[in-house]
Amino acid sequence: MSSTLIVLNLKTYLEGTGEGAVKVAQACKEVADDSGIEIGVAPQFCDIYRVASQVDLPVYSQSLDPVGAGSFTGHAFAQCVKDSGAIGTLINHSECRLTLANIDASISAAKGVGFRTIVCTNNVATSAAAAALGPDYVAVEPPELIGSGIPVSQADPEVVTGSVEAVKRIDPAVQVLCGAGISKGEDLVAALELGSVGVLLASGIVKAADPGAALEDLVSKI
Ligand SMILES: O=C(CO)COP(=O)(O)O
Fold first, then answer.
1. Is 141 designated active site?
2. Is the CB of residue 178 less than 8 Å from the CB of residue 154?
3. Which CATH architecture describes the domain 5-219?
């Protein structure tokens, strides 16, 4: 039985010097501690160090580049992201898409530093393709539902069940998350009932008037 995972992607919703990201991460930690459910947070690169050094919570980068040390201006180098305090990374988010070759190379770079890898996909076919590259998780998020407030579990349950089936067929060790429009307790329950092991989410929590209360609601039904 896989354990439930929630990853909160902060995207570029929060301005300032990281205080907002730390505050949301603290709310995640409180809810994780109270509920026993693993919650991770993916802040902007510039906030990783601050969040990871102030909050005892798994921190992910929002992407990672397939580069080593050297002349790679403007890239996110896995070792430095790790040294900043991250334990894993999103790869190929819909808002930060990569070529197939670079998804593969980013997974290798991430694994090279012991990172947990979450490859985002947009449909069943790309979920299957991502599974063939051997990440820890595939997170299926239909782009048209991202930020819509309409949960994928309701609007497109087949993309979740189809991804779960396809991924299992390709590599049973890869686990599936789903995301897009997830914000409420019933959305998380539905996501789990569709066979995913958790959710990747953003606006429903980050933009809520009280992110802590929104997180409490998210975990309230399991
Ligand atoms: O893109 C997402 C998480 O990575 C989903 O975003 P929303 O939760 O805002 O729909």
1. yes
2. no
3. Alpha-Beta Barrel (3.20)
Flag whether 203 is marked binding.
Answer: yes
Predicted TM-score (pTM) of the model is 0.98
The residues spanned by each domain of the chain are 5-219
- ipTM surpasses cut 0.95: yes
**Residue 38 annotated among the catalytic residues of the structure:** no
Distance CA 7, CA 191 (A): 13
The two three-digit tokens of residue 6, written as one number: 């929630």
CA of 71 to the centre of ligand 1 (A): 33
Q: How far is CA 64 from CA 17, 94, 188, 218, in A?
A: 21, 14, 27, 28
Question: What's the chain's average pLDDT?
Answer: 97
Quote the CA–CA distance of 154 and 114 in Å, as a whole number.
35
The total of other beta-carbon atoms located within 10 Å of residue 102's CB is 15
Indicate which residue of 19, 93, 158, 165 is catalytic: 93
Q: 118 labelled as ligand-binding?
A: no
Nearest protein CA to atom 2 of ligand 1, as residue: 201
Q: For residue 190, which amino acid is it? A: A
Which pLDDT tens digit goes with each residue over 79-128?
999 999 999 999 999 999 999 999 999 999 999 999 999 999 999 999 99
Helix axes 45-54, 19-35, angle to 10 degrees: 50
Element (H, E) at 200: strand 198-201
The bridge status of strand 38-42 relative to strand 60-61 is: unpaired
Containing 175, the helix (H) or strand (E) segment is strand 175-179
